[in-house]
From TrEMBL, chain A:
<dbReference type="GO" id="GO:0055085">
    <property type="term" value="P:transmembrane transport"/>
</dbReference>
<feature type="transmembrane region" description="Helical">
    <location>
        <begin position="112"/>
        <end position="131"/>
    </location>
</feature>
<protein>
    <submittedName>
        <fullName>Sugar ABC transporter permease</fullName>
    </submittedName>
</protein>
<feature type="transmembrane region" description="Helical">
    <location>
        <begin position="214"/>
        <end position="234"/>
    </location>
</feature>
<dbReference type="InterPro" id="IPR050809">
    <property type="entry name" value="UgpAE/MalFG_permease"/>
</dbReference>
<comment type="similarity">
    <text>Belongs to the binding-protein-dependent transport system permease family.</text>
</comment>
<keyword id="KW-0472">Membrane</keyword>
<feature type="transmembrane region" description="Helical">
    <location>
        <begin position="14"/>
        <end position="36"/>
    </location>
</feature>
<keyword id="KW-0813">Transport</keyword>
<keyword id="KW-1003">Cell membrane</keyword>
<feature type="transmembrane region" description="Helical">
    <location>
        <begin position="76"/>
        <end position="100"/>
    </location>
</feature>
<dbReference type="InterPro" id="IPR000515">
    <property type="entry name" value="MetI-like"/>
</dbReference>
<dbReference type="InterPro" id="IPR035906">
    <property type="entry name" value="MetI-like_sf"/>
</dbReference>
<feature type="domain" description="ABC transmembrane type-1">
    <location>
        <begin position="72"/>
        <end position="287"/>
    </location>
</feature>
<dbReference type="GO" id="GO:0005886">
    <property type="term" value="C:plasma membrane"/>
</dbReference>
<feature type="transmembrane region" description="Helical">
    <location>
        <begin position="266"/>
        <end position="290"/>
    </location>
</feature>
<dbReference type="Pfam" id="PF00528">
    <property type="entry name" value="BPD_transp_1"/>
</dbReference>
Length: 300, 295
Protein backbone atom coordinates (compact mmCIF):
# COMPACT_ATOMS: atom_id res chain seq x y z
CA UNK A 1 0.00 0.00 0.00
CA UNK A 2 2.76 2.41 1.02
CA UNK A 3 4.81 1.36 -1.96
CA UNK A 4 1.91 2.13 -4.25
CA UNK A 5 1.65 5.66 -2.85
CA UNK A 6 5.37 6.16 -3.34
CA UNK A 7 5.06 5.15 -6.98
CA UNK A 8 2.11 7.45 -7.38
CA UNK A 9 4.11 10.36 -6.00
CA UNK A 10 7.08 9.62 -8.23
CA UNK A 11 4.85 9.38 -11.29
CA UNK A 12 3.02 12.58 -10.39
CA UNK A 13 6.31 14.50 -9.97
CA UNK A 14 7.92 13.25 -13.17
CA UNK A 15 8.44 16.86 -14.32
CA UNK A 16 10.65 17.52 -11.31
CA UNK A 17 12.81 14.52 -12.05
CA UNK A 18 13.03 15.57 -15.68
CA UNK A 19 14.15 19.07 -14.62
CA UNK A 20 16.74 17.60 -12.30
CA UNK A 21 17.96 15.09 -14.85
CA UNK A 22 20.42 17.33 -16.76
CA UNK A 23 22.17 18.29 -13.52
CA UNK A 24 22.35 14.71 -12.26
CA UNK A 25 23.54 13.50 -15.64
CA UNK A 26 26.20 16.19 -15.70
CA UNK A 27 27.48 15.33 -12.21
CA UNK A 28 27.45 11.61 -12.98
CA UNK A 29 29.47 12.00 -16.17
CA UNK A 30 31.89 14.77 -15.28
CA UNK A 31 32.26 14.14 -11.58
CA UNK A 32 31.42 10.59 -10.59
CA UNK A 33 33.13 8.88 -13.53
CA UNK A 34 36.47 10.67 -12.99
CA UNK A 35 36.10 10.03 -9.26
CA UNK A 36 35.80 6.30 -9.94
CA UNK A 37 38.60 6.77 -12.46
CA UNK A 38 40.93 7.52 -9.54
CA UNK A 39 41.24 3.72 -9.25
CA UNK A 40 43.87 4.19 -11.97
CA UNK A 41 46.24 4.88 -9.07
CA UNK A 42 46.25 1.10 -8.40
CA UNK A 43 46.54 0.10 -12.07
CA UNK A 44 48.85 0.26 -15.04
CA UNK A 45 47.42 2.26 -17.91
CA UNK A 46 46.85 0.46 -21.20
CA UNK A 47 45.93 2.28 -24.39
CA UNK A 48 44.41 -0.88 -25.83
CA UNK A 49 42.49 -3.30 -23.65
CA UNK A 50 41.78 -3.13 -19.94
CA UNK A 51 44.10 -1.59 -17.37
CA UNK A 52 46.02 -4.05 -15.19
CA UNK A 53 45.74 -4.02 -11.40
CA UNK A 54 49.12 -3.50 -9.78
CA UNK A 55 48.18 -2.81 -6.16
CA UNK A 56 50.36 -0.28 -4.36
CA UNK A 57 53.18 -0.32 -6.91
CA UNK A 58 52.88 3.35 -7.83
CA UNK A 59 52.69 4.41 -4.20
CA UNK A 60 55.86 2.46 -3.40
CA UNK A 61 57.66 4.18 -6.26
CA UNK A 62 56.18 7.52 -5.19
CA UNK A 63 57.34 7.39 -1.59
CA UNK A 64 60.82 6.22 -2.49
CA UNK A 65 61.21 8.92 -5.14
CA UNK A 66 63.29 11.91 -3.97
CA UNK A 67 61.53 14.09 -6.57
CA UNK A 68 58.14 13.38 -5.00
CA UNK A 69 59.39 13.99 -1.46
CA UNK A 70 60.87 17.34 -2.58
CA UNK A 71 57.56 18.32 -4.12
CA UNK A 72 55.72 17.31 -0.95
CA UNK A 73 58.15 19.37 1.12
CA UNK A 74 57.70 22.41 -1.15
CA UNK A 75 53.93 22.12 -0.93
CA UNK A 76 53.99 22.06 2.87
CA UNK A 77 56.52 24.91 3.12
CA UNK A 78 54.66 27.19 0.70
CA UNK A 79 51.27 26.48 2.28
CA UNK A 80 52.66 27.07 5.78
CA UNK A 81 54.25 30.35 4.71
CA UNK A 82 50.90 31.46 3.34
CA UNK A 83 49.08 30.48 6.53
CA UNK A 84 51.57 32.36 8.71
CA UNK A 85 52.19 35.45 6.60
CA UNK A 86 49.13 35.84 4.39
CA UNK A 87 46.24 34.62 6.54
CA UNK A 88 46.39 37.44 9.14
CA UNK A 89 46.59 40.23 6.53
CA UNK A 90 42.88 40.36 5.52
CA UNK A 91 41.90 40.38 9.20
CA UNK A 92 44.17 43.35 9.95
CA UNK A 93 43.00 45.02 6.76
CA UNK A 94 39.35 44.70 7.77
CA UNK A 95 40.13 46.26 11.17
CA UNK A 96 41.86 49.18 9.46
CA UNK A 97 39.08 49.69 6.90
CA UNK A 98 36.53 49.58 9.70
CA UNK A 99 38.15 52.68 11.21
CA UNK A 100 37.39 54.67 8.04
CA UNK A 101 33.96 56.31 7.92
CA UNK A 102 31.68 55.43 4.99
CA UNK A 103 32.38 57.89 2.22
CA UNK A 104 34.24 58.41 -1.05
CA UNK A 105 37.65 57.44 0.36
CA UNK A 106 36.43 54.15 1.79
CA UNK A 107 34.61 53.40 -1.45
CA UNK A 108 37.77 54.15 -3.45
CA UNK A 109 39.93 51.92 -1.25
CA UNK A 110 37.50 49.02 -1.36
CA UNK A 111 37.01 49.25 -5.13
CA UNK A 112 40.77 49.18 -5.69
CA UNK A 113 41.71 46.39 -3.29
CA UNK A 114 39.02 44.02 -4.59
CA UNK A 115 40.18 44.44 -8.20
CA UNK A 116 43.09 41.92 -8.33
CA UNK A 117 40.77 39.12 -7.16
CA UNK A 118 39.08 39.23 -10.55
CA UNK A 119 42.29 38.96 -12.56
CA UNK A 120 43.51 35.55 -13.69
CA UNK A 121 46.88 34.32 -12.46
CA UNK A 122 48.12 34.66 -16.04
CA UNK A 123 47.46 38.41 -15.88
CA UNK A 124 48.80 38.74 -12.35
CA UNK A 125 51.97 36.90 -13.31
CA UNK A 126 52.36 39.32 -16.21
CA UNK A 127 51.95 42.27 -13.85
CA UNK A 128 54.43 40.83 -11.35
CA UNK A 129 57.05 39.89 -13.94
CA UNK A 130 56.99 43.54 -14.98
CA UNK A 131 56.92 44.86 -11.41
CA UNK A 132 59.88 42.68 -10.39
CA UNK A 133 61.84 43.07 -13.61
CA UNK A 134 65.58 43.54 -12.97
CA UNK A 135 65.49 46.24 -15.68
CA UNK A 136 63.48 49.22 -14.42
CA UNK A 137 60.87 47.11 -12.58
CA UNK A 138 59.06 49.10 -9.88
CA UNK A 139 60.59 47.24 -6.93
CA UNK A 140 64.12 47.56 -8.30
CA UNK A 141 63.58 51.28 -8.94
CA UNK A 142 62.87 51.57 -5.21
CA UNK A 143 65.93 49.42 -4.37
CA UNK A 144 68.16 51.54 -6.59
CA UNK A 145 66.82 54.67 -4.92
CA UNK A 146 68.19 53.32 -1.64
CA UNK A 147 71.52 52.51 -3.36
CA UNK A 148 70.77 48.76 -3.40
CA UNK A 149 71.66 46.65 -6.46
CA UNK A 150 68.87 45.29 -8.68
CA UNK A 151 67.61 41.77 -8.01
CA UNK A 152 66.03 39.26 -10.37
CA UNK A 153 63.33 37.98 -8.04
CA UNK A 154 61.51 35.68 -10.46
CA UNK A 155 64.59 33.52 -11.03
CA UNK A 156 66.00 33.69 -7.49
CA UNK A 157 65.61 30.54 -5.38
CA UNK A 158 65.99 32.62 -2.22
CA UNK A 159 63.16 34.98 -3.09
CA UNK A 160 60.63 33.15 -5.23
CA UNK A 161 58.65 31.66 -2.32
CA UNK A 162 58.26 35.15 -0.89
CA UNK A 163 57.11 36.32 -4.31
CA UNK A 164 54.39 33.66 -4.07
CA UNK A 165 53.31 34.78 -0.59
CA UNK A 166 53.37 38.49 -1.39
CA UNK A 167 51.66 38.22 -4.78
CA UNK A 168 48.98 36.06 -3.13
CA UNK A 169 48.53 38.84 -0.57
CA UNK A 170 48.37 41.42 -3.37
CA UNK A 171 45.64 39.45 -5.09
CA UNK A 172 43.51 38.18 -2.23
CA UNK A 173 43.99 40.25 0.94
CA UNK A 174 41.43 42.85 -0.17
CA UNK A 175 38.82 40.38 -1.28
CA UNK A 176 39.24 38.11 1.74
CA UNK A 177 38.77 41.09 4.06
CA UNK A 178 35.12 41.26 2.92
CA UNK A 179 34.09 38.31 5.04
CA UNK A 180 35.64 39.87 8.16
CA UNK A 181 34.15 43.28 7.39
CA UNK A 182 30.75 41.60 7.13
CA UNK A 183 31.30 40.01 10.54
CA UNK A 184 32.31 43.37 12.02
CA UNK A 185 29.13 44.98 10.65
CA UNK A 186 27.07 42.39 12.50
CA UNK A 187 28.50 43.38 15.89
CA UNK A 188 25.80 45.12 17.91
CA UNK A 189 26.28 48.92 17.93
CA UNK A 190 25.09 48.89 21.54
CA UNK A 191 28.42 47.42 22.62
CA UNK A 192 30.32 50.35 21.13
CA UNK A 193 27.95 52.90 22.62
CA UNK A 194 28.36 51.39 26.05
CA UNK A 195 32.13 51.44 25.62
CA UNK A 196 32.07 55.09 24.51
CA UNK A 197 30.02 55.97 27.61
CA UNK A 198 32.78 54.40 29.66
CA UNK A 199 35.28 56.58 27.78
CA UNK A 200 36.95 53.87 25.70
CA UNK A 201 39.20 55.14 22.90
CA UNK A 202 38.73 53.73 19.40
CA UNK A 203 41.85 51.61 19.91
CA UNK A 204 40.39 50.18 23.11
CA UNK A 205 37.08 49.53 21.33
CA UNK A 206 38.97 47.54 18.72
CA UNK A 207 40.93 45.63 21.35
CA UNK A 208 38.02 44.76 23.64
CA UNK A 209 35.01 44.56 21.30
CA UNK A 210 35.84 44.13 17.60
CA UNK A 211 38.65 41.59 17.88
CA UNK A 212 36.94 39.24 20.37
CA UNK A 213 33.69 39.38 18.37
CA UNK A 214 35.61 38.63 15.18
CA UNK A 215 37.32 35.56 16.59
CA UNK A 216 34.67 32.98 15.66
CA UNK A 217 34.73 34.12 12.02
CA UNK A 218 38.52 33.91 12.00
CA UNK A 219 38.37 30.34 13.31
CA UNK A 220 35.74 29.32 10.73
CA UNK A 221 37.74 30.74 7.81
CA UNK A 222 40.92 29.17 9.14
CA UNK A 223 39.29 25.75 9.35
CA UNK A 224 37.79 26.08 5.87
CA UNK A 225 41.19 27.02 4.44
CA UNK A 226 42.87 24.06 6.12
CA UNK A 227 40.93 21.75 3.81
CA UNK A 228 42.80 23.30 0.88
CA UNK A 229 46.21 23.16 2.58
CA UNK A 230 47.72 20.71 0.09
CA UNK A 231 46.72 22.92 -2.87
CA UNK A 232 49.30 25.63 -2.12
CA UNK A 233 47.95 27.64 -5.08
CA UNK A 234 48.26 25.65 -8.29
CA UNK A 235 47.35 28.45 -10.74
CA UNK A 236 49.85 30.79 -9.17
CA UNK A 237 52.76 28.35 -9.18
CA UNK A 238 51.87 27.01 -12.63
CA UNK A 239 52.38 30.50 -14.06
CA UNK A 240 55.27 31.73 -11.93
CA UNK A 241 57.38 28.57 -12.18
CA UNK A 242 60.49 28.58 -14.39
CA UNK A 243 63.58 26.42 -14.78
CA UNK A 244 65.66 28.48 -12.33
CA UNK A 245 63.25 28.05 -9.42
CA UNK A 246 61.46 24.77 -10.17
CA UNK A 247 63.38 22.98 -7.40
CA UNK A 248 61.94 25.23 -4.68
CA UNK A 249 58.37 25.88 -5.85
CA UNK A 250 57.35 22.70 -7.68
CA UNK A 251 54.26 21.57 -5.75
CA UNK A 252 52.09 18.43 -5.84
CA UNK A 253 49.64 19.77 -8.43
CA UNK A 254 52.29 21.05 -10.84
CA UNK A 255 54.12 17.73 -10.41
CA UNK A 256 50.95 15.78 -11.29
CA UNK A 257 50.45 18.00 -14.33
CA UNK A 258 54.00 17.49 -15.52
CA UNK A 259 54.35 13.74 -15.08
CA UNK A 260 50.72 13.07 -16.05
CA UNK A 261 49.73 15.41 -18.86
CA UNK A 262 53.18 16.22 -20.26
CA UNK A 263 54.96 12.88 -19.75
CA UNK A 264 51.90 10.66 -20.09
CA UNK A 265 52.57 8.65 -16.92
CA UNK A 266 48.84 8.63 -16.18
CA UNK A 267 48.72 5.97 -13.47
CA UNK A 268 51.71 7.27 -11.53
CA UNK A 269 50.37 10.85 -11.65
CA UNK A 270 46.96 9.64 -10.49
CA UNK A 271 48.60 7.95 -7.49
CA UNK A 272 50.21 11.27 -6.55
CA UNK A 273 46.96 13.15 -6.88
CA UNK A 274 45.02 10.49 -4.97
CA UNK A 275 47.50 10.83 -2.12
CA UNK A 276 46.90 14.58 -2.14
CA UNK A 277 43.13 14.11 -2.34
CA UNK A 278 43.06 11.72 0.61
CA UNK A 279 45.00 14.17 2.79
CA UNK A 280 42.62 16.92 1.71
CA UNK A 281 39.53 14.88 2.62
CA UNK A 282 41.04 13.85 5.96
CA UNK A 283 41.78 17.52 6.72
CA UNK A 284 38.27 18.64 5.73
CA UNK A 285 36.53 15.87 7.69
CA UNK A 286 38.66 16.26 10.81
CA UNK A 287 38.27 20.04 10.84
CA UNK A 288 34.54 19.56 10.34
CA UNK A 289 34.24 17.30 13.37
CA UNK A 290 36.64 19.32 15.53
CA UNK A 291 34.74 22.49 14.71
CA UNK A 292 31.43 20.77 15.44
CA UNK A 293 32.75 19.65 18.80
CA UNK A 294 34.31 22.99 19.75
CA UNK A 295 31.80 25.50 18.39
CA UNK A 296 28.81 23.30 17.62
CA UNK A 297 29.04 24.49 14.02
CA UNK A 298 30.30 22.24 11.25
CA UNK A 299 31.80 23.20 7.94
CA UNK A 300 28.50 22.36 6.23
CA UNK B 1 38.83 74.32 13.22
CA UNK B 2 36.43 71.54 14.12
CA UNK B 3 37.56 69.54 11.07
CA UNK B 4 41.19 69.85 12.09
CA UNK B 5 40.51 68.66 15.60
CA UNK B 6 38.92 65.47 14.27
CA UNK B 7 41.93 64.64 12.15
CA UNK B 8 43.91 62.87 14.85
CA UNK B 9 47.22 61.14 14.31
CA UNK B 10 45.72 57.65 14.23
CA UNK B 11 43.21 58.59 11.53
CA UNK B 12 45.96 60.19 9.47
CA UNK B 13 48.07 57.03 9.73
CA UNK B 14 45.12 54.79 8.83
CA UNK B 15 44.24 56.88 5.77
CA UNK B 16 47.91 56.93 4.80
CA UNK B 17 48.30 53.15 5.05
CA UNK B 18 45.15 52.48 3.03
CA UNK B 19 46.19 54.99 0.39
CA UNK B 20 49.59 53.31 0.05
CA UNK B 21 47.95 49.89 -0.24
CA UNK B 22 45.70 51.17 -3.02
CA UNK B 23 48.76 52.61 -4.81
CA UNK B 24 50.57 49.27 -4.55
CA UNK B 25 47.75 47.77 -6.59
CA UNK B 26 47.15 50.64 -9.01
CA UNK B 27 50.71 51.64 -9.90
CA UNK B 28 51.84 48.28 -11.39
CA UNK B 29 48.68 48.18 -13.53
CA UNK B 30 48.86 51.86 -14.58
CA UNK B 31 52.55 51.35 -15.38
CA UNK B 32 51.62 48.63 -17.89
CA UNK B 33 48.93 50.89 -19.32
CA UNK B 34 51.48 53.69 -19.74
CA UNK B 35 53.98 51.28 -21.27
CA UNK B 36 51.45 50.08 -23.85
CA UNK B 37 50.72 53.65 -24.98
CA UNK B 38 54.33 54.86 -24.95
CA UNK B 39 56.27 55.75 -28.07
CA UNK B 40 58.40 52.63 -28.83
CA UNK B 41 61.46 54.86 -29.28
CA UNK B 42 61.05 56.44 -25.85
CA UNK B 43 59.66 53.50 -23.83
CA UNK B 44 63.11 52.77 -22.38
CA UNK B 45 62.76 56.04 -20.43
CA UNK B 46 59.70 54.63 -18.67
CA UNK B 47 60.63 53.43 -15.16
CA UNK B 48 58.72 50.92 -13.06
CA UNK B 49 56.83 53.46 -10.98
CA UNK B 50 55.85 55.84 -13.80
CA UNK B 51 52.16 55.98 -14.62
CA UNK B 52 52.22 58.36 -17.59
CA UNK B 53 53.34 57.22 -21.06
CA UNK B 54 56.56 58.54 -22.56
CA UNK B 55 55.33 60.13 -25.75
CA UNK B 56 52.16 58.67 -27.17
CA UNK B 57 51.66 55.94 -29.73
CA UNK B 58 48.97 53.46 -30.69
CA UNK B 59 51.45 51.27 -32.55
CA UNK B 60 51.32 48.46 -29.96
CA UNK B 61 47.55 48.16 -30.25
CA UNK B 62 47.75 48.41 -34.05
CA UNK B 63 50.16 45.47 -34.03
CA UNK B 64 48.07 43.47 -31.56
CA UNK B 65 44.77 44.06 -33.34
CA UNK B 66 46.25 43.18 -36.71
CA UNK B 67 47.54 39.89 -35.32
CA UNK B 68 45.06 37.17 -36.39
CA UNK B 69 45.96 34.97 -33.42
CA UNK B 70 44.97 37.69 -30.94
CA UNK B 71 41.85 38.87 -32.74
CA UNK B 72 40.60 35.30 -33.10
CA UNK B 73 41.37 34.52 -29.47
CA UNK B 74 39.29 37.50 -28.33
CA UNK B 75 36.30 36.17 -30.26
CA UNK B 76 36.99 32.66 -28.95
CA UNK B 77 36.97 33.96 -25.39
CA UNK B 78 33.76 35.90 -25.94
CA UNK B 79 32.10 32.81 -27.42
CA UNK B 80 33.25 30.47 -24.64
CA UNK B 81 32.18 32.97 -21.99
CA UNK B 82 28.75 33.62 -23.51
CA UNK B 83 27.90 30.00 -24.34
CA UNK B 84 29.38 28.65 -21.11
CA UNK B 85 27.61 31.16 -18.89
CA UNK B 86 24.25 30.61 -20.62
CA UNK B 87 24.48 26.85 -20.12
CA UNK B 88 25.73 27.27 -16.53
CA UNK B 89 22.84 29.54 -15.63
CA UNK B 90 20.17 27.38 -17.23
CA UNK B 91 21.32 24.11 -15.66
CA UNK B 92 22.07 25.63 -12.26
CA UNK B 93 18.78 27.53 -12.09
CA UNK B 94 16.67 24.54 -13.10
CA UNK B 95 18.29 22.32 -10.48
CA UNK B 96 18.13 25.09 -7.87
CA UNK B 97 14.38 25.57 -8.43
CA UNK B 98 13.62 21.88 -8.01
CA UNK B 99 15.81 21.57 -4.91
CA UNK B 100 14.80 24.83 -3.25
CA UNK B 101 11.08 25.04 -3.93
CA UNK B 102 9.62 21.58 -4.40
CA UNK B 103 9.30 18.37 -2.48
CA UNK B 104 9.72 15.00 -4.06
CA UNK B 105 10.72 11.48 -3.18
CA UNK B 106 14.51 11.22 -2.96
CA UNK B 107 15.27 14.92 -2.42
CA UNK B 108 17.43 14.23 0.65
CA UNK B 109 19.40 11.70 -1.33
CA UNK B 110 20.13 14.27 -4.05
CA UNK B 111 21.32 16.85 -1.51
CA UNK B 112 23.63 14.28 0.12
CA UNK B 113 24.93 13.38 -3.35
CA UNK B 114 25.75 17.06 -3.98
CA UNK B 115 27.58 17.46 -0.67
CA UNK B 116 29.62 14.33 -1.38
CA UNK B 117 30.52 15.77 -4.77
CA UNK B 118 31.58 19.01 -3.12
CA UNK B 119 33.96 17.20 -0.76
CA UNK B 120 35.49 14.72 -3.20
CA UNK B 121 37.20 16.47 -6.10
CA UNK B 122 38.35 14.08 -8.80
CA UNK B 123 41.98 14.40 -9.86
CA UNK B 124 43.27 15.99 -13.02
CA UNK B 125 44.28 12.80 -14.85
CA UNK B 126 40.99 10.84 -14.75
CA UNK B 127 39.21 14.02 -15.85
CA UNK B 128 41.64 14.46 -18.73
CA UNK B 129 41.24 10.82 -19.78
CA UNK B 130 37.44 11.17 -19.66
CA UNK B 131 37.50 14.24 -21.90
CA UNK B 132 39.83 12.35 -24.23
CA UNK B 133 37.62 9.23 -24.26
CA UNK B 134 34.53 11.33 -24.98
CA UNK B 135 36.33 12.75 -28.01
CA UNK B 136 36.09 16.29 -26.64
CA UNK B 137 39.76 17.22 -27.06
CA UNK B 138 40.07 20.29 -29.26
CA UNK B 139 36.36 20.96 -28.82
CA UNK B 140 34.88 23.91 -26.92
CA UNK B 141 32.45 21.44 -25.36
CA UNK B 142 35.30 20.29 -23.13
CA UNK B 143 35.51 23.80 -21.64
CA UNK B 144 31.79 24.50 -21.57
CA UNK B 145 30.68 21.18 -20.11
CA UNK B 146 33.45 20.96 -17.56
CA UNK B 147 32.15 22.82 -14.45
CA UNK B 148 28.75 23.20 -16.15
CA UNK B 149 27.32 23.37 -12.63
CA UNK B 150 29.27 24.59 -9.66
CA UNK B 151 27.80 23.06 -6.48
CA UNK B 152 28.68 26.11 -4.35
CA UNK B 153 26.93 28.40 -6.81
CA UNK B 154 23.96 26.03 -6.91
CA UNK B 155 23.56 26.37 -3.15
CA UNK B 156 23.85 30.18 -3.40
CA UNK B 157 21.11 30.32 -6.04
CA UNK B 158 18.91 28.07 -3.90
CA UNK B 159 19.08 30.76 -1.20
CA UNK B 160 18.00 33.42 -3.68
CA UNK B 161 15.11 31.21 -4.84
CA UNK B 162 13.99 30.61 -1.27
CA UNK B 163 13.37 34.37 -0.96
CA UNK B 164 10.56 34.36 -3.54
CA UNK B 165 7.27 34.50 -1.57
CA UNK B 166 5.30 31.27 -1.34
CA UNK B 167 2.01 33.03 -2.12
CA UNK B 168 3.07 33.85 -5.68
CA UNK B 169 4.00 30.26 -6.46
CA UNK B 170 0.83 29.02 -4.77
CA UNK B 171 -1.29 31.36 -6.91
CA UNK B 172 0.35 30.05 -10.09
CA UNK B 173 -0.19 26.49 -8.97
CA UNK B 174 -3.90 27.16 -8.40
CA UNK B 175 -4.08 28.63 -11.90
CA UNK B 176 -2.85 25.25 -13.13
CA UNK B 177 0.72 26.16 -14.05
CA UNK B 178 3.13 23.22 -14.15
CA UNK B 179 6.56 23.23 -12.52
CA UNK B 180 8.44 24.08 -15.69
CA UNK B 181 6.12 26.99 -16.39
CA UNK B 182 6.42 28.27 -12.83
CA UNK B 183 10.18 28.02 -13.17
CA UNK B 184 10.44 29.94 -16.46
CA UNK B 185 7.57 32.40 -16.04
CA UNK B 186 7.79 33.22 -12.34
CA UNK B 187 10.96 32.01 -10.67
CA UNK B 188 13.45 33.28 -13.24
CA UNK B 189 11.95 36.78 -13.72
CA UNK B 190 11.63 37.25 -9.96
CA UNK B 191 15.22 36.20 -9.26
CA UNK B 192 17.04 38.57 -11.60
CA UNK B 193 19.51 39.86 -8.98
CA UNK B 194 20.43 36.30 -8.02
CA UNK B 195 20.83 35.26 -11.63
CA UNK B 196 22.89 38.36 -12.41
CA UNK B 197 25.20 37.55 -9.49
CA UNK B 198 25.61 33.95 -10.58
CA UNK B 199 26.02 34.99 -14.20
CA UNK B 200 28.93 37.22 -13.17
CA UNK B 201 30.48 34.42 -11.09
CA UNK B 202 30.36 32.08 -14.07
CA UNK B 203 31.32 34.65 -16.72
CA UNK B 204 34.42 35.70 -14.78
CA UNK B 205 35.37 32.06 -14.37
CA UNK B 206 35.08 31.44 -18.13
CA UNK B 207 36.85 34.66 -19.13
CA UNK B 208 39.79 33.89 -16.84
CA UNK B 209 39.98 30.15 -17.57
CA UNK B 210 43.26 29.17 -19.24
CA UNK B 211 44.37 25.86 -17.74
CA UNK B 212 41.72 23.56 -19.19
CA UNK B 213 42.04 25.38 -22.49
CA UNK B 214 45.81 24.82 -22.38
CA UNK B 215 45.49 21.06 -21.98
CA UNK B 216 42.30 20.42 -23.99
CA UNK B 217 42.83 22.70 -27.01
CA UNK B 218 45.92 21.93 -29.07
CA UNK B 219 44.88 24.00 -32.10
CA UNK B 220 46.13 27.60 -31.54
CA UNK B 221 43.25 28.89 -33.67
CA UNK B 222 40.86 27.78 -30.95
CA UNK B 223 42.75 29.29 -28.03
CA UNK B 224 41.01 31.81 -25.80
CA UNK B 225 42.75 35.10 -25.04
CA UNK B 226 44.14 33.93 -21.69
CA UNK B 227 46.07 31.09 -23.35
CA UNK B 228 47.51 33.43 -25.97
CA UNK B 229 48.36 35.91 -23.22
CA UNK B 230 50.11 33.13 -21.31
CA UNK B 231 52.03 32.21 -24.43
CA UNK B 232 53.32 35.79 -24.80
CA UNK B 233 53.76 36.88 -21.22
CA UNK B 234 54.62 33.75 -19.27
CA UNK B 235 56.21 31.57 -21.93
CA UNK B 236 57.83 34.63 -23.57
CA UNK B 237 57.07 33.41 -27.07
CA UNK B 238 57.52 36.46 -29.26
CA UNK B 239 57.70 34.74 -32.62
CA UNK B 240 53.97 34.00 -32.82
CA UNK B 241 53.30 37.56 -31.74
CA UNK B 242 55.49 39.24 -34.35
CA UNK B 243 55.76 36.47 -36.90
CA UNK B 244 52.23 36.84 -38.20
CA UNK B 245 52.89 40.48 -39.02
CA UNK B 246 52.63 41.80 -42.51
CA UNK B 247 51.14 45.24 -42.14
CA UNK B 248 54.32 46.80 -40.79
CA UNK B 249 57.61 47.63 -42.44
CA UNK B 250 60.82 46.05 -41.18
CA UNK B 251 61.93 49.26 -39.52
CA UNK B 252 58.68 49.46 -37.65
CA UNK B 253 59.00 45.85 -36.48
CA UNK B 254 62.58 46.49 -35.46
CA UNK B 255 61.51 49.49 -33.42
CA UNK B 256 58.81 47.55 -31.54
CA UNK B 257 59.31 46.78 -27.90
CA UNK B 258 58.26 43.29 -26.86
CA UNK B 259 57.60 44.37 -23.29
CA UNK B 260 55.17 47.03 -24.49
CA UNK B 261 53.34 44.49 -26.64
CA UNK B 262 53.05 42.18 -23.63
CA UNK B 263 51.72 45.11 -21.60
CA UNK B 264 49.16 45.86 -24.32
CA UNK B 265 47.95 42.24 -24.32
CA UNK B 266 47.52 42.31 -20.55
CA UNK B 267 45.54 45.55 -20.78
CA UNK B 268 43.28 44.15 -23.54
CA UNK B 269 42.46 41.11 -21.40
CA UNK B 270 41.43 43.42 -18.55
CA UNK B 271 39.07 45.62 -20.57
CA UNK B 272 35.86 43.55 -20.19
CA UNK B 273 36.49 43.30 -16.47
CA UNK B 274 36.93 47.06 -16.13
CA UNK B 275 33.76 47.72 -18.15
CA UNK B 276 31.70 45.49 -15.88
CA UNK B 277 33.56 46.33 -12.68
CA UNK B 278 30.91 48.71 -11.24
CA UNK B 279 28.24 46.04 -11.76
CA UNK B 280 30.56 43.34 -10.44
CA UNK B 281 31.15 45.34 -7.27
CA UNK B 282 27.42 45.78 -6.81
CA UNK B 283 26.36 42.16 -7.32
CA UNK B 284 29.40 39.99 -6.85
CA UNK B 285 30.50 41.38 -3.51
CA UNK B 286 26.93 41.13 -2.23
CA UNK B 287 26.49 37.60 -3.56
CA UNK B 288 29.78 36.51 -2.08
CA UNK B 289 28.68 37.80 1.29
CA UNK B 290 25.29 36.15 1.17
CA UNK B 291 26.69 32.85 0.02
CA UNK B 292 29.65 33.08 2.35
CA UNK B 293 31.54 31.78 -0.65
CA UNK B 294 35.29 31.73 -0.95
CA UNK B 295 36.89 30.39 -4.05
Amino acid sequence: MREKRLWFQIKRDWVLYAMLLPALLYFSIFHVIPLIGMKLAFQDYRIIGDNVWVGLKHFNVLFSSPAFLDVLKNTIIISSMKVIFFFPVPIILSLIINEVRNGPFRKYVQSVIYLPHFLSWVVITGVWISLLSPVDGGINVIRNFFQLPSLDYMTSKDHIRWVLVISETWRSAGWDSIIYLAAIMKISPGLYEAAKMDGATSLQQMRYITIPELLSTVVTVFILNLGFFMNAGFDQVFNMINDSVISVIDILDTYVYRIGILNGQYAYATAASLFKGVIGVVLILSTHFISKKVSGKGVW
Amino acid sequence: MRMLKKLTWTTAIIYGILFLISLSILIPILNLLAMSFSDPLRVHELKGLDIFPKGFSLINYEVLFSNPLIVRSIFNSLFITAAGTALNLFLTAMAAYVLARTNFVGKRLVIIFLIVIMVFEPGLIPEYLLVKDLGLLDSYLSLILYKAINVFYLFILMRFFEDVPDSILEAARIDGAGHFKIFTKIMLPLSKPGLATLGLFYAIYHWNEYFRATIYLTDPNKWPLQVVLRQFVVERDNTSLLGAQNVLSYEQVAALDFGSLQAGTIIISMVPLLIFYPIILKYYAKGALEGGVKD
